[in-house]
Amino acid sequence: MEQTFIMIKPDGVQRGLCYGYGVWMVGKFGKGTYGVSGGVIEELVKLDESVLGLQVGDIISRFEKKGFYLKGMKFINVDRPFAEKHYEDLSAKPFFSGLVDYIISGPVVAMIWEGKNVILTGRKIIGATNPAESAPGTIRGDYAIEIGRNIIHGSDSAEGARKEIALWFPDGPANWQSSVHHWIYE
Ligand code: UDP
Ligand code: MG
C-alpha cells in the first residue's frame, strides 16, 4: 500500500478549518509525536505542559471517509532550515523565501496517509496549486483564494512522498490496521 505526506499549513490551522468534527488530536507545541488510531489517542504518557486539544475536522475527514488510513500525525512548529529542506526542490524559485516564511509562521499538522493510489488521489482531493484553478469540491477549491495561502500540502510523487515521510517522521509510521479494511478494498 502506498503512503503519502500531507500537511495542513499554518493558515489552515489558524483559520480553524481543522476544528470541525472527527477524531481528537492531542499534541504539544514544539515537539512530540502523538499517533491517533481509530480515534484512540496513543502515547498520552508523553504529554506534559502546553497540552492542547485540537479537533481535527473537515480536511482530515475527507481522507478518512475516502478510505485512506492515518498512519502518522504531528502538530508542530518547524524552523527555517527544516522548511527549506522540505521545499529544497523549489529553492531556485522566486517565491521560495516567502514560502518558507509562510510555513514557519505557525504550527502545522503533518500526517502520513496510506492507501491504494493515495499519492495521486490525495493530490486530487487537495486540488490544483493555485486555488483560483482548483475545482470546487477540492480542499483548496473550497477553502482558499491565494496560491501563497493554499492551506495544505501533499506529496507529488512516490519519490517525494518517501523523502518527505523520512524527513517529517524519522521514526516511521504508526503500526495499526483498520478493522474495516476488507469492506473498502477487494
Ligand atoms: N507557491 C507560491 N507561488 C507559486 C507557486 C507555488 O507561493 O507561484 C507555493 C504554494 O504554497 C505551493 C508551494 O509553493 O503550494 C509549493 O509549490 P508546488 O509547485 O510544489 O505546489 P503544490 O505541490 O503544493 O501544489
Ligand atoms: Mg509540491
UniProtKB/TrEMBL annotation:
Residues holding ATP: 9, 95, 123, 129, 140, 150
Family membership: Belongs to the NDK family.
Gene3D superfamilies in UniProt: Nucleoside diphosphate kinase-like domain
Family matches, as CDD domains: NDPk_I
Residue ranges of domain Nucleoside diphosphate kinase-like in the record: 1-176
EC number assigned by the record: 2.7.4.6
Key word Cell wall biogenesis/degradation present: no
Catalyzed reactions: a ribonucleoside 5'-diphosphate + ATP = a ribonucleoside 5'-triphosphate + ADP; a 2'-deoxyribonucleoside 5'-diphosphate + ATP = a 2'-deoxyribonucleoside 5'-triphosphate + ADP
One record GO biological process: UTP biosynthetic process
InterPro entries for the chain: NDK-like_dom, NDK-like_dom_sf, Nucleoside_diP_kinase
Active site: 153 (pros-phosphohistidine intermediate)
Alphabetized NCBIfam families for the sequence: PRK00668.1 (NF001908)
SUPFAM superfamilies: Nucleoside diphosphate kinase, NDK
Highest taxon of the lineage: Eukaryota
Keyword annotations of the record: Kinase, Transferase
Named cofactor requirement(s): Mg(2+)
Transmembrane regions listed in the UniProt entry: none
Record PANTHER family: NUCLEOSIDE DIPHOSPHATE KINASE (PTHR11349)
Pfam family, one: NDK
Gene Ontology molecular function terms on file: nucleoside diphosphate kinase activity
Protein name: nucleoside-diphosphate kinase
